[in-house]
Amino acid sequence: MIVFDLLCHAGHRFEGWFASAEDYGAQCQRGLLSCPQCGSARVERVPSATRINTGLGEPAQKVPPNAADPELAGKDPFSIAQILYSRLVDEIISRTEDVGSQFPVEARRIHYQEAPARAIRGVATREEHEALVEDGIPVARLPLPRGRPN
Fold it and tell me: Which secondary structure element, helix H or strand E, spans residue 6, and what is its range?
């Protein structure tokens, strides 16, 4: 696996993971690469940051993610993922305003500075989501578990 830094024509920088440099080239030639932020297919590889091993000092020991959290201790990876996802959803719900089915309209209003800037959540069809992305409006789809507010 190899990671390349990529840049779209609109200036959005992102990473692409490929099986090899040849795989990257083949995907470029077939037009399979696109910017996750704006959807542009005009993408190019840009220089990546490098790591230089100077041999100075020992690397910090990695602490397992469940070492500092008793709720995660002794749990299998799937259970840990469920707990962490539930926490993420709780944070998103507590820090965003629910605009319901008006999400696409309100996201555009915020993007074009016709409404106060704020974090929102709501409902959008796949087509509405794709249209927002095509317009360069940063949105993300997040499925919420049943019984949770949208």
Answer: strand 2-8
